[in-house]
Amino acid sequence: MSWLFQLLQAALVLAVAPLLTGFVRVLKARLLGRQGPPLLQPYRDLLRLLRKDPVIADNASWLFRGAPYLGFALIWLGACLIPTFSSRIGLGATADFIALMGILAGARFVQALAGLDVGTAFGGIGSSRDMMIGALAEPAVLMVIFTVSLLTHTTSLPLISEFMQTGSVGLRVSLALALIALVMVAIAENARIPVDNPATHLELTMVHEAMVLEYSGRHLALIEATAMLKLVLYLSLIAAIFVPFGMATGTGPAGAIALGLATWVGKLAAGGALLAVFETSIAKMRVFRVSEFLGGALLLGLLATIYLYVTRAL
Amino acid sequence: MTLSESTIYDVTHLLNGTVLLLSFALLYQRRLFGVLSAFAMQSLALALAAAWQAFANDAPHLYITASIALFFKTIIIPVSLHRIVINLGIHREVETALGIGATLIVGASLAALAIVLVLPVTAASVALTRENLALSLSVVLLGLLMMITRRNAVTQVVGFMSLENGLLLAAVGVRGMPFVVEISAAFAVMVAFIIFGVFFFQIRERFDTLDVSYVERFRGERH
Description:
heterodimer, A: mainly alpha, B: 8 helices
């Protein structure tokens, strides 16, 4: 039964990812007073790109060709590890928070290498900036992991969700700080607005788009799908740790599963709406201020860990 | 209505934590108006914390403290500072003596220092008191840090008032604190505000800037 859930989740995250991205785009356009693209536009974009043959530079190696597939596979695997509608998923036993971050770091590594492969200036800029963001974001995530695992005594994501769902942890300063730190990291990792602009590849300050500038055709489709999946992954991760309420904890009655599905979709929609509001209300920062932004996330994570020791028994 | 012990603990905890978080937000700001709104938010969080203490501990006099924090610190002072900045044509960027990143690192170490100081002293008391003291001491230290690391007189005033917020946070959290203290603390802020207002005009008239290093140069301390 749990493997059935796992397959269902693997299919669901893939199916929902473009919809979420489309939803955020529509909402952003409406907030800016524009009509915006139709909700299903990302699906059409992906289909159009998938039908096209990629144009590859003469000096591109196998790495350049393989990176989109590998990156996509890694992020998809990561998205499958996170408990979404039910905490009883087939891969639950391997769904470790630290392992998940390892998978994400692996995907980043592959994409950065591919950015450097062809040897164009833009790819190099993008890769080096992306690695800078990664190097700053990972310590912050580690601090969040420390906080959450000290509270729940485990690094397994399904167990963390189940523990948080019981509500026995209560409201904690540490959890609030960790939540903000993780949200900041998620914004940076998904190349959203204060750190990077997802809507354009015509700016000199871009990071992610510069790295993948050389890609076209079905490779580009995979890379865009990866970015969409990553957004679902981070929103589901935040939901699974901090607001797991509504998630089914057993293979139990169909009603519980349906409730889990409904609340998951609701959480994704709420997260997407918050993201759209946040992005329209803030200006993009200079690339060299990203270190301050993520340094802030690291410090909040650090404080979250420190404050665990002042509060009630661990 | 009686509340369970854990609800009181959770909400108090969360509100006090918000005040501390906004102290960090205050240090992170680069623009003067950002500093003022962060300060207003912090005072609002303080007012909520005081009101919650009044409600939870059945201490109605704390509602007065809460409303003082709400009216003076959340509305009147930020709005009038906002006006002063516009009327005097003060430069709207925060001038730092120490970079933002470095300030944040020092700030986090100060928060850790506050915990290290508070833990041994309050070993015998309940978790709520211990935590309240640790949080408010951190807010006080961060206020001091802001006064040290920001050159502009307006940001120094805001740092001073954020320090006051920390003191008030400690005062409302301790049961049986006499009311006089709070009134006097609130008035101290008002007085400080008036004095600093006059101070601004003086410096501005004489030196054409609010950067205090000019005053030092004038006195012959720095060449």
